[in-house]
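$ run holo --ligand "pyridoxal-5'-phosphate" --emit tokens
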Amino acid sequence: MRINRYLAGMNKAYLFAEIANKVADYVKEQPPREIIRLGIGDVTRPLTPHVAQAFADSALKMGTPEGFHGYPPYEGYDFLLDAIIKNEYAPLGVTLGRDEIFVSDGAKSDTGNIQELLSADAKIAVTDPVYPVYVDSNAMVGRLGGKTEGGYERLTTLPCTAENGFMPALPENAPDAVYLCSPNNPTGTAFTYAQLKTIVDWAKAHGTLIIYDSAYKAYITEKDVPHSIFEIEGARDCAVECCSFSKNAGFTGVRCAYTVIPRELSAELDGRLVRLNDLWRRRSESRSNGVSFPVQCAAAASLDEIGRRETQGLVNGYLANARVIREGLTKAGIACYGGVNSPYVWLKTPGKLSSWEFFDALLRRAQVVGTPGAGFGAAGEGYFRLTAFNSPEKTAEAVERIVKAF
Ligand code: PLP
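-- output --
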């Protein structure tokens, strides 16, 4: 048996395990007060009543002869596709057809699987720091070659730091595909219309595919930040967009997401033009039997008028926490980024501490847990991520403690 050497060669996903170990060791030393966790990447508030009701009603329907549903359509039920078109895209002035949307169980699966559209030797670029799924999914199939110190032989990383305003320099030697995430995890920053236009123009000029992760689009509050890459002229020729119900409607445990692949998006292969939409449909039909009826009903409920009002309430609650973190720490002289269009605040570690030194200092001096920026890539060194997913009370207390301690 010959097994996948690239999969076998992957590092352990050590970041959160290492954090958990460090916290567990510290707890053994009996810290002076309760530890507050601002490292949480999962939502914490329950499904809204309207969404939970739709979920329950549709589950009960499945137990009746007339309401039973077997295998769903591979790409999603029309009622959900229509709700996405009407409520997520039409208000932006973006027109989509049902056949351009693919419903799935998560943006993690979609952003991890989308590399199957690409040739085995396609060149990949990611921003640094980065959501690790983009790198790992390419590394596991051998596309990135062997490991180097801190990276891979065939991976281009585009640093995004305070110095460049979190806007990557776009390489002349363009990759086949670049992964972008806006609003960004982990930096909490978001591209403006002008910045995204620059990237779309570059991608079109170089024949680069943009894989655009907008799992956090519901957090956008600023007018000059686009909610979809398809608001940018030309994006239909060079981009796919991965969206999720996880962070707006609290679906991290329910599981529903969707990816948009425009009909125009195509590439030349052996002298003919191949549509990526057709490839993805072909792939989905072989790899998945779709997303369950109750989950899609719940997702559709989150998009109707009541659902939107309620889920916006969830998002606003997290945004209020983000603001408490950002404003509290900024007042204390700590440089903070993000947190305005995002549940993540990305801070520059005070006193030039490394990301992990700050982690230890924060734990011991403030009994607060966050995530070291270096865990998201080399350009994250010297930064630190705090998240807005804890309760308002705990978030405020954590900020007070940090301000006192630093
Ligand atoms: N994309 C980004 C940037 C994320 O941070 C996350 C989750 O943390 C996901 C995708 C995963 O989304 P889903 O829950 O839909 O799989």
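-- notes --
The chain has a mean pLDDT of 96.
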